[in-house]
Amino acid sequence: MSSSIQTTIIRQPADGDTALTPNNKSAEVIHENRAGWLMLAPACILLVLFIGIPVALAFVLSFTNARTISPNPTRFIGLNNFTRLFSDPTFWRALLNVAIFAVVVVPVQAGLGLFLAVLINKKVRSSVFFRTVYFLPVVTSMVVVSLLWMFIYQNDGMLNQVLEKLTFHHWTAVDWLNNPQTALGAIIVMSIWQAVGQHMLIWLSGLQTISAELYEAAELDGCDAWHQFTNVTWPGLRSTRNMILITITIAALSLFTQINVMTQGGPRDSTTTVVFEAVRSGFQQQEMGYASAITLVFFLIIMAITAVQRRITHSN
Amino acid sequence: MTIGTASSISVHEDKTIKEKYRRNRLSIGGWLVRILFACLFAFPLIFMVVSSFKPDDEIMADLSSVKAFLPTGNVSLDNYAQVFTRVPAGRFLLNSVFITLVTVVLGVLVNSMAAFAIQRLNIRFKKIIFTFILATLMVPFETYAIPLLWWINQLPRPAIDQFGLYFTRGWMDTLTIQIIPFIANAFSVYLYMQYFETIPKDLDEAAKVDGAGWFRIYSRIVMPLSGPATATVVILSFLPMWNQYLWPLMVVQSENNRPVMIGVQYFQQMTTSWGQIMAYSSLITLPIIAVFVIFQRQFVSSIAATGVKG
Q1: Would B11 be classed as within a structural domain?
Q2: In a domain, B282, yes or no
């Protein structure tokens, strides 16, 4: 700090106006500090109020019997919420469901996104058109997408009708969303359809950072398309890859909107999720303490996964 | 690469131009795959828009043929008229426009100011604050939505009436509560900081010599030069705001404060008319798609910007 003051002192007298004494200068430092805090304050206050405190509250409320509106004062109840939570089969089912969802969606969506990105990473005019079309579902809200696919999936809906046509009426209609065997799968397919365009774009920006010379060199070495992909493209996408894996994983674990619009967790809990259970107990049943416990477990899982993924990234 | 006689270079370049051309030309297979995927992504949306103009029985009848994707038969605006008479759709649209607009504008202001302070000014505890802001990037909204709901129920709300400032507990069921938690955004701060780094500090110094204060430097010099960063921040914050679902679901009760996505519930509760559902869906989707198609270049670079974090 003192060195910067000195350099400015040396430079300033040349300007000829009020000679700055060190005293004036330290007033300026104080002024700069105050101006900085004033500009920083709105963002900081809002982030503390609406993210910092709520996250901290998740830890506190989980150990209480807090309710949204309650005549009784909130009491500390130790680990009760957690013992109840871990003995609740619905919660385990929710964990299993998001795990299945993530295990399928993460590789498929990332892979398909990369495939589409490679597909349209050519400098021809039609690429812009295809890029736009592939991205359309992403700008469509998940609520609208869910409604649309409810129609596609229903008993006399589009999917069954098309399958019936294709099999020459050998197909028996499946009620995709009301069948515990198919409901989660149906939601997985729809979710990938909606979000894959976004990851295609992120891959695409990663692809465009790889220099064309590398491809030319590979071609001179006699690499075919597949070997170019494994030797140039794949290693060149390392940082993009890590980014995409983390974001898709977190989004997959946070599954909520589709479930709320399409199935309400049913049939027989086959599509319930962690966030859906948290909202059900916290919002509908107003059991804030219990819902916070769910939230906290979810928060810790997300943090653990992010940490593990970062670890893997950095050790490579 | 750079070593070689002049003649061999030109031959080589000639070859690479041809190579490039070959690489960028599409094979028939390439075309087919591209078109196949285009159909896969576009047809459900085309179906939605086309069906919004058809009566219910025709939507069902057309389902198993290509007619499902074509505006054939008894095409009319009846579904749209029904949507506006049965549901306060205009009100919902207005609410969503208001919520989105205010959040985006205040977000640009608040986040760019914070970024400017961190990137340009010497402030005490800067490191700690920056770390805190970055840390908030790591937690998805879903992980603290429930405690936030409890929190805003406890939080006093400043309000003003003819007797002056007073505090109530009325955060719930307002437009304000759909806006305030989403104004400050760590990723926007981060994007602005990245961009401010590219603006030379000599400009600040020159302005300071002319007697400009920090706020003036921010508003008159740095911000006007940061158009691309602002475009990215606007695009990235506008879409999730318009599509808000979980939060308004929990905090809004009255019809007057509902945003468009919550309006969908009306159609699920009433006897299902798919034509009307498609009309409402088109109504809340097509404006966004139009904005996207017009600004698609900016959209693409904004989404690409989300790939650089981490």
Answers
A1: no
A2: yes
Whether residues B150 and B60 share a domain: the answer is: no
pLDDT tens by residue, B247-275: 999 999 888 999 999 988 888 776 678 88
Query: Do both B267 and B160 map to the same domain?
Result: yes
**CB-CB under 8 Å, A15 with B209:** yes
Predicted pLDDT of residue B13: 53
Contact (CB<8Å) A43/B133: yes
User: How many domains are contained in chain B?
Assistant: 2
Instruction: Kindly list the distances between the CA atom of residue A6 and the CA atoms of A13, A91, A129, A290, A294, in Å, as whole numbers in the listed order.
Output: 12, 63, 58, 59, 56
User: Under an 8 A CB cutoff, do A151 and B113 touch?
Assistant: no
**CB-based contact (8 Å) between B213 and chain A?**
yes
Residues B215-241 have a mean pLDDT of 90
Mean pLDDT of B242-249: 93
Looking at the complex, does the CB of residue A20 fall below 8 Å from at least one CB of chain B?
Answer: no
Structural domain spans, chain A: 2-61, 83-315
Mark yes or no for CB contact A139/B292 under 8 Å. Answer: yes
Any B CB within 8 A of A236 CB: no
pTM: 0.84
Please give the torsion angle defined by the CA atoms of residues B157, B158, B161 and B166, in that order, rounded to the nearest 10 degrees: 100
* A134 chain-B contacts, CB cut-off 8 A: 37-38, 41
Q: Is A307 on the interface with B (CB under 8 A)?
A: no
Mean pLDDT check: name the lowest of A200-209, A268-277, B158-167.
B158-167
Which residue from A minimizes the CA distance to B296? A132
- What's the half-sphere exposure (Cβ side, CA atoms, 13 Å) at B42? 13
**Residue B128, exposed/middle/buried by CB under 10 A (0-12, 13-18, 19+)?**
exposed
The whole-angstrom separation of Cα B136 and Cα A154 is: 40
**Fold topology of A83-315:** MetI-like fold (1.10.3720)
Separation of first and last alpha carbons in chain A: 39
Give yes or no: residues B46 and B131 share one domain: no
B200 & B301 share domain: yes
Instruction: Report pLDDT digits (tens) over B21-65.
Output: 555 566 788 889 999 999 999 999 999 999 999 988 888 888 777
Which range of residues forms the domain containing residue B171?
A: 84-306
